[in-house]
Amino acid sequence: MTSHGTPAGERPDGTAAEPLERPTFDTSVAHIARVYNYWLGGKDNYAADRAAGDRAIQSYPEMVSSVRSNRAFLARVVRYLAGEAGIRQFLDIGTGIPAANNTHEVAQSTAPDCRVVYVDNDPIVLAHARALLTSSPGGATDYIDADLRDPGTILSQAAQTLDFSRPVAVMLIAVLHLIVENDDAYRIVAELVDVVPPGSYLALSHVASDIEPGKQAEARNRLNQMVHEKQTHRSHAEVARFFQGLQIIEPGVVPVPQWRPDSDLEAKCPSVMWGGVGRKC
Amino acid sequence: MSTAQPGSEPPAETLGPTVLRIMLGSQLHRLREAAGVTPDQAGYAIRASRSKISRMERGRVGFKDRDVADLLTLYGITDEHMRAGLLALARQASAPGWWSRYGDILPDWFEAYLGLEAAASVIRAFELQFVHGLFQTEAYARAVTLLGHRAAPAEEIDRRVSLRLKRQDLLTSPGPPRVWAVIDEAALRRPVGGGRVMRGQLDRLIEVAQLPHVTVQVMPFGRGGHAAAGGSFTVLRFGEADLPDVVYIEQLTSALYLEKRDDVDHYVEVMDRLGAEALTPAATARFLTDLARQT
Hints:
The complex is a heterodimer of chains A (281) and B (295). By secondary structure, chain A is α/β, with parallel strands linked by helices. Chain A contains 10 helices and 8 strands. In chain A, strands 1, 2, 3, 4, 5, 6, 7 and 8 form an 8-stranded mixed β-sheet that branches. In chain A, strand 1, helix 4 and strand 2 form a beta-alpha-beta unit. Chain B is built from 13 helices and 6 strands. Chain B has a 6-stranded mixed β-sheet, sandwiched between helices. Chain B starts with 15 loop residues before the first helix and ends with a helix.
């Protein structure tokens, strides 16, 4: 539950606030959050989502393994941040439909007083997040209905739950590839990193343009034909550029299964995503 | 993280007979299809009809050891380890649930629901007319029961109320299901049992909504007309990956259980829309507090 009287992202009448561009509530068109849910083995997806997900799998058969590796990466990163790095505040942008090991669950299992703000722009995702991603008693969770393209709104609303004078982990897990224009993507990340104090972290994963490029380009083209939210892929160098000015945490920007894997087996999982964590000094 | 993980898979021994039947049924379905056996052929092998096979595979009926053994043979399952596992599952699935001692007042169509509810990892409900059974106070439950059974003797009313309250043990059991209810404002404005009973019910709702695994959202009068057009229904989800969601729609003398993906998708979509259009859980808490004050 929220820790304050007037939750962010709500109108005065208590219904969810109208975002800049509310995605249409149209289940006949595939939605990327529900396609991910399908790949992750979830049940919150519709026929159009499954069809798009299957089309992408035809191009890149290891898709399911790749998105699951990304989910495992999220959990390991949060465990690292809440554990070794001592972070207690998380800004998780592009929450997606709740699955196993959501950010606040992993964070609060390491440190129960962690505060997590989830941000998404999809009404179904937000309804699920508000209902299902509830905090343990010692910490806090909140939910912001906002678009990644509008970091100002995200930051001002997140300030109701997070203390921006203390370190914050900004999480951009498998979401920046939905910001197609490079200028926009780098500007957004810079704006977010600019606001958080030294000692804060940036954690992100991004679909790669230079791992299995042929299959991946085909999967992307198929998805872009069927899914409402268009995506672009970026190279290792382009992903590393998001961490410019930050101290990159070992092992750097790597395929997500190789980021501090729990086992050799985990490290060998197929994946087409770059992932990394950087610290603001 | 709290010790009880809402929505997580309950341990096998607490699954209850219904979900065990569904699990066994879905395995038999898979094995039959893999073996290329038609429902008619399978029915013939166990001296039953194709519809009996279909009911078995959907977990709607219990299993006889001999039937399961014959089907496994027909499907070419000779591995003793696998056969023993499935036969053990069949025996567990035939054990009675806690509700069996209410058999005299429990119609079959509702008994099936209790089994599914007890096995669910997520229960999503839209309530148009009454507060959900899992959230009812004794006084409110009694008032609702009296509405439906005006002529029943007092003892029967007591038993019906006691059954309803017993169901609520689910909320405080270890590894409780996640319960996510959207309640229409009408259900909260209608003073079932009178103002005092309703006031108590609203207080209870405020309390129960604070449980970490319970989410309550009120659909205010001003919203949700389109999505709510169909009336009350419940979507039950199970932790096992291959068990489909089941939609439960109660009628006056029977109930509908939908589990075909197309049907279920349609109801889940309405449920998703209701969840997106209703007051957020935080705003619902404020709404309920205000309403309780007025009631």
